[in-house]
Structures are given as structure tokens and as C-alpha cells.
Write a structure and sequence with these properties.
alpha/beta; Rossmann fold; 10-stranded mixed beta sheet; 10 strands; 19% strand
Length: 292
């Protein structure tokens, strides 16, 4: 048996799915982004029962109501993780049991994109399940242990997200509500609305793309919906573009956004900056009150 090296040609020829999260405040049209996707190749992971916004959309959907069902669908979509023990979720044994219940996983081959609406509701289902587990009960007093429940919740959510993130041949998009808060210095802070802090903190590092669907105003005072895609942006919104192909502001059309992300990659020398700022640039930055 030869050493299992994946050659550059093999790696470049692989079909790669986009993994991303779209955040935005309620009512801004996150679920309606389904209309911008190919209905025949999109699976709607409907957790919110909020499909009134896409009434008439001709794509397929699944509607998990419990955390156990969320895990079952995740392993059915993403396949088994060979590193896990048989008793663990997302293991080969879990996958085999789910295939016996749902049927042949090859039925999912028709779907290129899984649209999960929303990660906020998934977090609530997960927390409700965690509160009923032994880790959520104090061994000393027998009373509910909130810290234990939230600790288990963080582990469960990260395992769920990471497993779906490893579904290489499909686009996986999570949708979530964006909260606006004020910190101790009276500054606006935007964070994903997910129970517990662990998931919100680690989510940007798990997915490739973090996109905020926001309402932006122009110089004339007119507001419009747009995607914010760069980490450094003047609005303070959470965002990340691992592909390096997106502009700061993109039109709120998920289908065309994925087409742009999937374009042939430019050479690194054309899309990455390796030079240090000049002394003049640094001095100008300091004069403007910005830390270099």
C-alpha cells in the first residue's frame, strides 16, 4: 500500500462545496434567498417552519422537530466519520442505522446545496435536548446544572456544524439571526443569535464564508439590501471571504454569489498582499486615529 498522497491534479479536480453562514436581522429576507437557488438541486432544511416566505417554491424540504432528528439528517447528508466510536453520533454505526430508517443515501446525490434555516432554532432544539441529559444534572445535589447543560450544548453544536462542514461535494449554507448589542464602551456589537457563547465564537472559524445580509444606506439616504462579505468593513458586521473572490458589497442573490465564489481562482500574487506598509502609510494611519 502506497502512502495516500493526494496529488495537486487530484485535489484541483475534486468537486468542492461552499460552506457558509448568512446572518441578518429578522424580516430582512434570509429565507427568501431560496428563490435565488436552483429548486431542483436544493434541499431546504426547514427548522423554523417559516416557509410562508417561500410559498410556491418548488424545491424539496425536510422538517426535523428534535435534536436527534437534526443529528440523523446531518449524518445522512454528510456520511459517517470513521474516526468515531460506534456509540458516538455521526459514526459508521449511526450512519448505518439512519440509512436503515431513511433508505439509500444515494437519493441525496441530486442535491448540490443544503439550505439550513436556521442555526438559531437548531441551537434551541439542541439546548432543550441537553437539559435532559445526565451532564445537566448535578451529581452532588441532583438539581439541574446549567453549566453542564451549556457545556454539552457547545460540544453538540460544534460537532453538528463540523460534520456538515466536512460534506465536501455539497454547498452547505446555514442561516441565522444577527443580534445587535451595545458593549461597555457604548459601541455596537453584532453577534449571531445562538444559545450559549461557544457556538457563536467558533462558527466563523468552521465555515468558509460568513456573509451578513444587511440594510445599507447610500449618500442620498436611500437604503437597500446587500451582502457584506469582507471581514474589514465599515459597518462592524461579522463577515469573512475565504475564497478571495468577493467584493466588500455584493448583491443579495445567493445563487450568483456562489457562482462568483466558484470562478477559477486567480494566482496568489494577484489576490494576496505580501508587502509591508510604507512609513508614509503608517504615519497617515496614525494621524487619522487608526491603529496600524
Amino acid at each position: 500500500m502506497s502512502f495516500p498522497i493526494i496529488t495537486a491534479d487530484q485535489r484541483l479536480a475534486e468537486k468542492k462545496g461552499i460552506k457558509g453562514v448568512i446572518l441578518g436581522r429578522s424580516g430582512l429576507g434570509k429565507t427568501s434567498l431560496l428563490w435565488t437557488l436552483n429548486a431542483g438541486s436544493t434541499l431546504f432544511f426547514d427548522l423554523e417552519a417559516g416557509d410562508l416566505a417561500v410559498e410556491g417554491w418548488s424545491g424539496d424540504a425536510i422538517r426535523p422537530r428534535t435534536w436527534q432528528e437534526c443529528r440523523d439528517f446531518a449524518v445522512f447528508i454528510g456520511g459517517p466519520n470513521p474516526a468515531l466510536r460506534p456509540e458516538q453520533p455521526y459514526s459508521q454505526a449511526h450512519y448505518d442505522a439512519v440509512c436503515e430508517k431513511f433508505g439509500d443515501a444515494n437519493t441525496l446525490q441530486k442535491y448540490d446545496t443544503v439550505f439550513i434555516d436556521s442555526i438559531t432554532v437548531a441551537g434551541r432544539l439542541c439546548l432543550q435536548w441537553c437539559k435532559g441529559q445526565p451532564q445537566a444534572v448535578s451529581e452532588r445535589t441532583g438539581k439541574p446544572d446549567t453549566r453542564g447543560a451549556y457545556g454539552l450544548h457547545g460540544q453538540e453544536m460544534i460537532s453538528f456544524l463540523t460534520h456538515l462542514q466536512h460534506t465536501r461535494n455539497k454547498n452547505i449554507w446555514f442561516v441565522g439571526i444577527l443580534d445587535e448589542r451595545t458593549d461597555d464602551f457604548n459601541r455596537k456589537v453584532f453577534t449571531p443569535q445562538i444559545d450559549g457563547s461557544k457556538t457563536a465564537l467558533e462558527l466563523p472559524g468552521i465555515v468558509d464564508q460568513v456573509i451578513t445580509l444587511a440594510e445599507i444606506g447610500d449618500e442620498a439616504g436611500t437604503t437597500y439590501r446587500a451582502f457584506v462579505a469582507h471581514t474589514i468593513n465599515p459597518y462592524g458586521f461579522p463577515a469573512k471571504d475565504r475564497s478571495g473572490r468577493l467584493d466588500l458589497i455584493e448583491e443579495p442573490h445567493l445563487g450568483r454569489l456562489m457562482e462568483k465564489i466558484s470562478q477559477p481562482v486567480k494566482p496568489a500574487i494577484e489576490r494576496l498582499t505580501f508587502t509591508h506598509p510604507t512609513t508614509t502609510d503608517t504615519e497617515t494611519t496614525r494621524q487619522e486615529g487608526v491603529q496600524p
